[in-house]
Amino acid sequence: MTIIRENILTANQFNMLFNSVGWDSPSKEQTQTALKNSLCTFAIYKEDNLVGMARLLGDSAMSYYVKDFVILPDYQGNGLGKALMNHMISFIKQQLPKGYKVSVELISSTGKEPFYSKFGFEERPCQCDGAGMFMMVKA
């Protein structure tokens, strides 16, 4: 059975999942702050085992951002990512007042673009937008 829970993800769980896909996890303190300041966190379980996560950031009016979307490598390709993304999209729709139209954005890991395209995400640059950009800032 697959279960998705909201706002229960711990810093240790986050960092374990983050590391599972080869990303260097931030400090526990930085992770705790990020989780606390997220609009919502999502944890997906398969048979009581934590197998994935994502965070949702945003202003709840015009813009949402999907961040740290991870499914453990051994569980990828089994529909869990699809279930998690569909849950997140439903969550966003439930938060919106009638008539609102919002932007949902993300940065895909290399090679994962086809997964996100299935949900309607478009690669940039596209007809209406230039290339997405980002920078890392270190204190």
From TrEMBL:
<dbReference type="InterPro" id="IPR053144">
    <property type="entry name" value="Acetyltransferase_Butenolide"/>
</dbReference>
<feature type="domain" description="N-acetyltransferase">
    <location>
        <begin position="2"/>
        <end position="139"/>
    </location>
</feature>
<dbReference type="GO" id="GO:0016747">
    <property type="term" value="F:acyltransferase activity, transferring groups other than amino-acyl groups"/>
</dbReference>
<protein>
    <submittedName>
        <fullName>Acetyltransferase (GNAT) domain-containing protein</fullName>
    </submittedName>
</protein>
<keyword id="KW-0808">Transferase</keyword>
<dbReference type="Pfam" id="PF13673">
    <property type="entry name" value="Acetyltransf_10"/>
</dbReference>
<dbReference type="InterPro" id="IPR000182">
    <property type="entry name" value="GNAT_dom"/>
</dbReference>
<dbReference type="InterPro" id="IPR016181">
    <property type="entry name" value="Acyl_CoA_acyltransferase"/>
</dbReference>
